[in-house]
Amino acid sequence: MFLSELPTSEYNPFYHTYIMALGEVSLMDALMDGKEELLSLLGKIPESKLSFAYAEGKWTLAEVLVHIIDTERIFQYRALRFARNDKVDLPGFDQDLFVPYSNANGRKVQDLMAEYKAVRDSTITLFKSLDEEALKRKGFASGSPMSVRAMGFIISGHQAHHLRIIRKRYLV
């Protein structure tokens, strides 16, 4: 399934910027290429950069990376629930409440790489296991309808969004 086949009715408009950041790509390519891109970038980051924040009140690089991982876990869980036809409206989450309890700034690059790889591999395995019908199933998250396939693109687009910020503001 390609991004151009995803109707905007399958996700909240809040996520449109993330999704459009991907360009025309298949869902599985977005997930697999995104994995290689982030792991390649992480492999080049010195430990000393993890504690860097580009401005007062902004997250450190380590916090941004853990945020990417946390968000993927949440969207993967939502995708599983909706793929299994769960109709419960799943609550949103406050990313700013997660970060202080993430222990991100006590982590090493290698630990972040291993955790990210485990989470992304799990995401890829989940999406590979789903047939077309499951990918099109919808549920509700944060009061908005969302399809399983949209969540796969959101996971990838959210990461792409943060990678642009990392390159522009953290790795200069």
Task: Give a summary of the structure in a few sentences.
The chain is mainly alpha-helical and 172 residues long. Pfam families: DinB_2.
Give the helix/strand layout:
Blueprint: H1 16-20, H2 27-42, H3 61-83, H4 95-98, H5 109-129, H6 132-136, E1 138-141, E2 144-147, H7 148-170
Antiparallel strand pairs: 1-2
InterPro entries: DinB-like (IPR024775), DinB/YfiT-like (IPR034660)
Organism: Flagellimonas hadalis
Protein name: DinB family protein
Q: Which stretches of 5+ consecutive residues score pLDDT under 50?
A: none
Residue-averaged pLDDT, rounded? 96
Helix content percent band: 55-70%
Strand count? 2
Q: Estimate nothing, just give the exact number of structural domains.
A: 1
CATH superfamily membership: dinb family like domain
Major sheet size, sense and barrel closure: 2 strands, antiparallel
How much beta, percentage-wise? Answer: under 5%
Domain DinB-like: 36-166
Protein name: DinB family protein
Organism: Flagellimonas hadalis
InterPro entries: DinB-like, DinB/YfiT-like
Describe what you observe in this structure:
This is DinB family protein. InterPro entries: DinB-like (IPR024775), DinB/YfiT-like (IPR034660). The protein is mainly alpha-helical. It has a single domain, classed as Four Helix Bundle (Hemerythrin (Met), subunit A) (Up-down Bundle). It is built from seven helices and two strands. A two-stranded antiparallel sheet has the order 1-2. Helix 2 runs parallel beside helix 7 and helix 3 packs antiparallel against helix 7. The longest helix has 23 residues. The chain is globular. It starts with 15 loop residues before the first helix and ends with a helix. The mean pLDDT is 96.
